[in-house]
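Q: Hi! First time doing this. I have a protein sequence and I read that you can turn it into a structure. Is that right? Here it is:
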Amino acid sequence: MIHNNERNILKMQDQIEELSRLLLNDWQALEIHAVEEKIFRALLRIGNNALSAYVEKKGTGENAYDDEITSHSVKNWNYISVFGTVAIKRAYFWDKEKGSGVFPLDEDLNLPAKHYSYLLQNWNQLLAVDSNFDSARETLERILGINIWTKQSEEINQNAALSVDEFYESNSEGEQTQPILVAEVDGKGVIIRKETRDDTTGPYKPRLKKGEKNGKKKMATVTAVFGIDRNIRDVEDIVAYETDNSEKNPAKPRLKIVTDDEPKPKNKIVRATLEGKEKAFERIVMQTESRDPNKRCDRILLMDGEQALEKKAKEYLTPLGFVIILDLFHVMERLWTLCYFFCTEGSRESVEWVRKYLTMILTGKVGYFIGAIRQIMKKRGFSPSKIQKIEKLLRYYEKRKCYMKYDEYMAKGYPIGSGVIEGACRSFVKDRMELAGMRWSEIGAEKMLELRSIKVNGKWDNYWQYFVTEEMQRLYSDYDSWNEPIKFIGKIVA
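A: Yes, that's right. Below is the predicted 3D structure, encoded as structure tokens:
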């Protein structure tokens, strides 16, 4: 008598022989790319039979209790793999006292809660965290012929993100070797739709009513933590300006605020959360404790000077010895805005103006810089509205002078520009969360940001292994109690 697993093996052998015959005969007239696709489709069918043979050989789990107890029934379950659907027959055991039952084969195979295999979920989410759910569905359907609907993909996303926090806590970067521990923090808005009951999915695109706005933005707090080597520079290294095609077009200045050979961040971890600034800073604290347990590193925080972030930084990070540095990118942005009150935009004069006052700022003379601008402003006789705008910019510097000791920072080799977090807000948050038509629920957005951080930080494979292990524990931890003497509805074997 031929068993089902043997029948599948024989079917595989026939398919392989048929594939060999087609390669050597019928397909010889085809172009190579066409043959390539036909081989791939044939291998998917062979893979389906191979997986079916594996499952059949496993049996139904009927003997899970050493033939002492027979199962109550056998139930079918469709396992959707990358090779297509595989039918699995599972023996079901019922505990009368507990009022519940188990499928021992589920634990043995580590079946997922949903019908989609962990490998298929993995590939689906690998696509979804970089594009949208519809694109992920279309791509997998085109390649594998398997359709995971958008709603199902969103549910997979939320479930797959459940273990992210625990993963980061359990898999720390370890003690860093670089002398400087850097944290950067900033905010980036995500469009959130109005929540409805049981509304926890991801992107949503309803037809808007007349006068209705396309969602409101909620601020995601973005953090980056990394180690870096010292980079001692002179003011000239940063202020040195260049002009593109200086002879032909001198009106396009470009200031360099970093050197070309500066050290690169090491073991960078970027994350974002919509669940409040407290959670974001708690993550920085966790990273700090794991990276610098012996407090041997210089600890710095680069930020843009937002008051709410500054308040949390003082609460969470200043007690840990962090030096707060005002990001030079934001200083420069406002310096150029100031410049165009006094100089013609795009002129050589404007470049020299910025060069002069940036040098003053970088040499620790922020107070002199503010005073000089006010003197010039009075001499120019600006209108009250212009004076008000200039004063607003100057107050930004006045309030943050204590974070602008750039001469000291550069002497110690600290970074003074937050290029990492600026890039993260753009590539990590904006490039995925602001795709055309995207409006998120808070839960859907949070889970996407969590899982996307795993991809961005290069930890996908390690995380997925961790997630599958955690899922097994969550789904089957109660199965251990079924090994105890219990009363089953089923035939008791003598």
